Amino acid sequence: MQNDVIMAGFGGQGILLIGKMLAYAGMREGKEVSWLPSYGPEMRGGTANCTVVISDRPVGSPVIQSPRAVLAMNLPSLDKFEPDVRPGGLLLVNTSLIERKPARSDVTVIEVPANQIANELGNPRGANMVALGAYLGATDAVSLDGVIEVVRETFAAKPGVIDVNIQALRRGYEIGAACTVGV
Amino acid sequence: MTKKLMKGSEAIGEAAVQAGCHLFFGYPITPQNEIPEYMSMRLPQVGGTFVQAESEVAASNMLYGAAGSGERVMTSSSSPGISLMAEAISYLAGAELPVVIVNIMRGGPGLGGILPSQSDYFQATKGTAHGDFRLLVLAPWSVQEAANLVQDAFDLADYYRNPVLILGDGLIGQMMEPVEFADSREPIKVLPPKTWAATGHNGSKPRSVINSLFLDPEELERHNFHLKEKYDRMERDEVRYEAHGLDTDYDVLIVAYGTVARVCLTALEELAEEGVKVAMVRPVSLFPYPSAAVREAAAGAKAVLVVELSMGQMIEDVRLAVGRSKPIHFLNRVGGMLISPDAVIDKIRAIEDGSSEEVRHA
User: Are B114 and A27 in contact (CB < 8 Å)?
Assistant: First the structure.
């Protein structure tokens, strides 16, 4: 059993962070994990993406050409990675920032208004957590409780943001769980 | 002993510190900047010293001085930076100084790119610099193995009094994976005291001289034969490799090292589910090369497939191992492009159906 996902957005959206949290929670659950960032010649405000693999067996290729899931937080990310999603796979789209509909009809599309929900929660920077929650809800790649534990540790130095981030995760999880596909 | 999620670069740094390396000299270059970054944070905590030198040339000569005083010392760089260190590496080998050098390869030649590559195989294993010398070269395929090999590298460097090179690619440097460090660790070799080191012992014994200059030809010849004897012992005792799928029948034998071998392993497992039998030998030591293992494994195959992120540099060693006994096929990507498991699967199918052309003989 393997879950793999490419998470992509622009620099500053916290994409690499939610990827690390996912990998960390997977490791805590005794899974084999890898986290691989893009490190091309990027500039500030440019694109950022990472590939996370969570598996019951030692991770083979940490590079995933046809991921089981793609999380696109902005339009350039959707344009770049939509064609790569494995048929039957999962495409999570941040509809707050992406107006166009995905073209693929052979994948499960989950529309997540991540920024809008984060704003409603009074935590505009928590859109990444909403998106991570939606991915967890759809896949249960790792347990929601495990990720919540990682949130508590990650933000231990800033206790004021722990609860709002957990709220964001839960709101995302509900959206994802409503479209559970088990990829 | 608990698992930590670490970048390969950080794990390499921590492994060095835990192996007793308290000195690091380096100069930044992508994709391995997290190694000097980690060492600049970590070494002061253990009473060590980190120096960001003014250049790779300076850093590698600082290595020479520190190793000459008997200290465990490391540097790291990426392809063009290793070229700049080449002169000092030859001097280190000539003066028989134990050091660990990490090369996190990027694409070349010249300044090339910053993305993963394996294009320094020749440089690492055959032609690092002038003179008759060899580096002991170890190539990890995971973050955990990178940490383990770095620790072993310090013991091997001390044991053979020779530079040891850790050859990784950009993926090894940038990827995060779980790593475990043992609570305590015994050296993998019996290490004699460094009586040869220049430590300033107040005239209590003859001066130790760290030198690679031998103007007397007879003396230099003796030195060259002495070095060769060390390299022969490495070839006898330090060969490392991992075999996959050799215990059942197979048609194709893959030979691949580093992270590329993981991609191949995924392909191999997917093919096994379809009943296509493929085996793999993964060299871990690139010098000494596991020639016997490749030869013996190739004997059971119809064809050999070399997979590399270079224009085919390792094919030469595979050819030396298997001779003309088996057709050799080749799959590569270069310039920072990566090979996917699907590409390996397609290539294996092409070999099976006869549409793949074998590598031509010289």
Answer: no
Cα–Cα distance measured from residue B176 to residue B164, given in angstroms and rounded to the nearest whole number = 24
| Contact map slice: A 44-83 vs B, CB within 8 A | 59-63, 65-66
Show residues of chain A in contact with B175, CB under 8 Å. 34-36, 62
pLDDT at residue A11, as a whole number: 85
| Domain B3-237 falls under CATH 3.40.50.970 | yes
Q: Where does B204-353 show beta strands of DSSP type E?
A: 241-244, 252-255, 278-283, 285-287, 303-308, 328-332
Between CA A70 and CA A6 the distance in angstroms is: 5
Q: What is the CATH number of domain B242-353?
A: 3.40.50.920
Q: Give a yes or no: residue A28 inside a domain.
A: yes
Please report the ipTM that was assigned to this predicted complex. 0.93
Question: A30 — contact with chain B (CB < 8 Å)?
Answer: no
Three-state DSSP at A4 gives strand
- Rounded Cα distance between B170 and B65, Å, is 29
- Cβ of A42 under 8 Å from any chain B Cβ? no
Nearest CB partner across the interface for B177, out of A34, A39, A40: A34
Q: Which domain holds residue A35?
A: 2-177
Find, among B310, B306, B302, the residue nearest to B256 by Cα: B306
pLDDT digits (tens, 9 = 90+) for B166-204: 999 999 999 999 999 999 899 999 999 999 999 887 777
Residue A183 included in any domain = no
Best residue in A16, A39, A42, A142 for a mutation probing chain B (most B CBs within 10 Å)? A39
Positions in chain B short of pLDDT 70? 1, 362
The number of folded domains in chain A is 1
Closest CB to A36: pick one of B175, B178, B340: B175
**What digits encode the pLDDT tens for the residues B262-300?**
999 999 999 999 999 999 999 999 999 999 999 999 999
Determine which of A51, A52, A61 to mutate to test the interface with B (most B C-beta atoms within 10 Å): A61
Q: Which residue in B59, B41, B132 sits closest to B99, CA to CA? A: B59
Tell me the pTM: 0.95
CB B13, CB B26: distance < 8 Å: no
CA distance B67 to chain A (A): 33
Task: Report if residue A182 sits inside a domain.
Answer: no
- Torsions phi, psi for B80 (to 5 deg): -65, -30
